[in-house]
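Hey team,

Sharing the tRNA threonylcarbamoyladenosine biosynthesis protein TsaE run so nobody has to redo it. Sequence (151 residues) first:
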Amino acid sequence: MSQFEFISKKPEDTMAFSERLGSLLQPGDVLALEGDLGAGKTTFTKGLAKGLNITRNVNSPTFTIIKEYYGRLPLYHMDVYRVEDSFEDLGFDEYFEGNGVTVVEWAHLIKEQLPEELLTIYLYLDESGSRKIVLEPKGERFEELCKEIMS
Ligand code: ADP
Ligand code: MG
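Structure output:
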């Protein structure tokens, strides 16, 4: 499985990177965001929203699980941290199969329900405070997308 890495020294770097990714997304794309609390998953999603021409402020959907935003494409922003049973069906499929882009923070917590093809993004916080961003594509579409972003 291929992996692509990017070092982000500040929030603006993360958002510039995810904004570029956001500008390349297509209907039905699913992104899984993984990383500890404060690693930058929501910050990453803010940049992504900008790349989708969403003007509303994106903030953490922790208590609502799913928030929807409308730009060039709809963005379904999920934070499944509080989903207790990995099989609990909150209608995720309808989002994954819909015409928007879905971003799932803590996606591994519902791994049984995730689509086969998706782009997983790991955010690691290191001692210096910077973030290592690792992209792990599954499927041809996301492999190509990663190559384009990293070029
Ligand atoms: P999560 O959703 O993973 O819990 P947040 O995005 O809510 O994380 O919070 C990340 C915090 O870390 C924000 O306060 C952000 O400003 C800060 N931060 C510092 N450096 C970076 C960086 N390089 N990339 C992303 N966030 C950063
Ligand atoms: Mg968050």
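The CA atoms of residues 69 and 141 lie 24 Å apart.

Ping me if you want the raw files.
A.
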